[in-house]
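Minutes, project huddle
Topic: does the predicted pose make sense with NAI bound?
PN asked that the exact inputs be recorded in the minutes so nobody has to dig through chat later. Recorded below.
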Amino acid sequence: MPVSPAVVTVTGAAGQIGYALLFRIASGQLLGPDTPVRLRMLEIPPAVKAAEGVAMELDDCAFPLLDGIDITDDATAAFDGVNVALLVGARPRTAGMERGDLLSANGGIFGPQGAAINAGAADDVRVLVVGNPANTNAFIAAAHAPDVPADRFTAMTRLDHNRALAQLRQRTGAAIDDIRRVTIWGNHSATQYPDLTQATIGGRSALGVVDDQAWVRDTFIPTVAKRGAAIIEARGASSAASAANAAVDHVHTWVHGTPEGDWTSAGVVSRGEYGVPEGLVSSFPVTASGGAFTVVPDLELDEFSRARIDASVAELVEEREAVRALGLV
Ligand SMILES: NC(=O)C1=CN([C@@H]2O[C@H](COP(=O)(O)OP(=O)(O)OC[C@H]3O[C@@H](n4cnc5c(N)ncnc54)[C@H](O)[C@@H]3O)[C@@H](O)[C@H]2O)C=CC1
Ligand SMILES: O=C([O-])CC(=O)C(=O)O
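Predicted holo structure (tokens), as shared on screen:
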């Protein structure tokens, strides 16, 4: 029996991440080889023509799973019946900025989009916010969607998670598939806490394999946390293909699950886990099963980890206060 197509909406579809993302979605890498996809591309009016050009290229790939493409500048139309919403469209930072500096420029995008999702999305909608500052933009979107379960709104820290895996591979020579239980806690910002205390490499403690606390504290953590700025410095533009790759990973894991014995990292709406105030969108260690993320419970946090998580969560609280002051929630 033919499977009906999933509606996947990508905002900012004519941007750099959109260009790296849409072709992977249409080829089946997001939802798997058995699910046809109907793509909805949302753009602001000046970029609709560029989105049309991207759609022409998508057509020219003749992807068997691509059921059709709609292009619109209207959020209500973009999110009508949507199953997977990828909220990418937002301004990227430039050299010298922190992601939080984008709040006033970008925050206003996510309330109306949350409201449009609330009004028209499919019952099983899953939302991934990529546009920065991603955690707080997801908080804004969720606040405007009271009828959508809060656990359907997530923010992307999978890129940070993948960066942590890559740094650990470089340091130890381990295969990526042998590295497990790495965690990104907190905000997708320089305050994030990439945590190796629970991580294993080939079943052994990653900290034991590395055997160099100073490297973890002074090299690993800042390299992962400041990787976005390093890419901007080197490339003259913020990361795009690796961000699109992480978005594909995030949704694929959400839908298809985490491997036995492992977990990933995602920004999810806190229910008070690990002392993170309820309602904030914070990155946690999460497993995925049955199409839902669950925060890994009962991990022991040492003093250093506790302090790092608290510092990043304090920044999320500040961002929440800022969006309240701006009248965005
Ligand atoms: N969470 C993460 O790990 C990462 C997040 N990002 C963020 O993703 C966002 C997008 O980055 P790029 O694609 O490089 O930027 P870009 O500037 O190349 O593209 C953004 C696109 O969004 C569109 N747009 C702006 N307002 C919109 C609206 N209201 N509705 C629909 N579309 C709208 C623009 O017309 C543009 O085409 C930025 O905020 C960037 O900082 C980037 C990398 C990683
Ligand atoms: O750093 C930036 O502005 C873009 C981003 O979020 C990342 O690369 O992690």
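Observations noted during the meeting:
- Residues 11-12, 14-18, 42-44, 47, 88-93, 109, 130-132, 134, 156, 159, 188, 238-240, 243 surround NAI (ligand 1) (CB under 6 Å).
- The mean pLDDT is 97.
No decisions taken; revisit at the next huddle.
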